[in-house]
Design brief:
Blueprint: H1 12-17, E1 27-28, E2 32-36, E3 42-50, H2 64-84, E4 91-94, E5 108-115
Antiparallel strand pairs: 1-2, 2-3, 3-5, 4-5
This protein binds zinc ion (ZN) (2 copies).
One zinc ion binds next to helix 1.
Length: about 120
């Protein structure tokens, strides 16, 4: 997927994954990074993204590597929520389904309820 973003339109999530923004990373390894959603809609609302630029869930392939990546993203999200919201017993995890993508870099929303009223 390298080259999917041109230098003139840098992908914000790629920049975050590379650590070239001021966004504090809650988790970082060679496959994924996690950080807080800028507009949290729940008590805790984190995003877990692959370091590699993968635009949407449709770009995942039915191969072991991608299954492993998605289960790793879920694991990281669960671990962070259990650590930061142990009193919440309602966690939600979800990908956007195209075309409802806010940012075109695959990201897993990880929420610990309650939701923040709007
Ligand atoms: Zn990206
Ligand atoms: Zn999103």
């Amino acid at each position: 997927m390298a080259g999917a973003t041109s230098p003139s339109q840098p992908c914000i999530f790629c920049q975050i994954a590379r650590g070239s923004t001021s966004t504090p990373l809650l988790h970082a390894d060679d496959k994924v990074v996690a950080f807080q959603d800028i507009k949290p809609s729940a008590f805790r609302h984190y995003l877990v993204i692959p370091v590699e630029h993968i635009p949407t869930v449709r770009d995942l392939q039915r191969r072991n590597e991608d299954y492993a990546l998605v289960s790793h993203m879920l694991n990281v999200g669960q671990t962070l929520l259990r650590r930061d919201a142990p009193q919440s017993n309602q966690y939600r995890f979800g990908f956007h389904q195209p075309p409802l993508n806010s940012v075109h870099h695959l990201h897993l929303h990880c929420l610990a309820l309650p939701f923040i009223p709007r």
